[in-house]
Amino acid sequence: VDISNENLSIEGIAKDSASYDDLIAALSGKVAGNGVVASHAITPPRVSPYVFSVVKSAGGVALAGVVPSVEVRAKLLAAAAEAAGDGVVLVKTTLASGEPDGFAALAQFSVAQLSRFKTGQVSLADSALSVAGTANDLAAYGSSLAELSAALPSGAVLASQSISPPAVSPY
């Protein structure tokens, strides 16, 4: 914390998500007297493992876990909205630091997989990707298997995969 004349500058790492949210809210408000927040560099709390998941159901898509920034959250929300189609998108993420290299690209890749599924789930634990679901159709089933068998985003590993083809009806 540095106070010079009427200017306040603060930097550091928040101890937890609630403290981070409180600090950001407080720094966007007024400072006592005629003071102004000249600068702030508050880092969200560091977490390990870095866990993120997305579930697609008939009603929509739900994002949960941690993300490194508001900007990454917005990109993931856009990808989730595309995967949800006419369904709703629920966002239950918090900001945290400690993300593995390439997290944003891997998370977007993961969410995009759900656009091929009727229902499913993708989850990340650091750089380990797990994918499960039922494909929309045979083309989506083949595409998903092929993409997951090819090169994943940098640094990622496929921890598990359980993708089912769509049920054939009438059989």
Description:
With 171 residues, this protein is of the alpha/beta class. 29% of the residues lie in helices and 39% in strands. It has a 6-stranded mixed sheet with strand order 6-5-4-7-8-9. Strands 1-2-3 form a 3-stranded mixed sheet, covered by helices on one side. A hairpin with a 2-residue loop joins strand 1 (2-4) and strand 2. The protein starts with a strand and ends in a 7-residue tail after the last strand. The model has no long low-confidence stretch (mean pLDDT 87).
What does this entry show, briefly?
This protein has 171 residues and is an alpha/beta fold. 29% of the residues lie in helices and 39% in strands.
Mean pLDDT: 87
Please outline the major beta sheet. 6 strands, mixed
**Total DSSP E strands:** 9
Strand portion: 35-45%
Q: Helical content, roughly?
A: 25-40%
What are its keywords?
single chain, 171 residues, alpha/beta, six-stranded mixed beta sheet, three-stranded mixed beta sheet, 4 helices, 9 strands, 39% strand, elongated
Write the layout of secondary structure elements.
Blueprint: E1 2-4, E2 7-13, H1 17-27, E3 36-43, E4 51-57, E5 60-67, H2 70-84, E6 88-95, H3 103-113, E7 117-125, E8 128-135, H4 138-149, E9 157-164
Parallel strand pairs: 2-3, 5-6, 8-9
Antiparallel strand pairs: 1-2, 4-5, 4-7, 7-8
Helix pairs in contact: 2-3
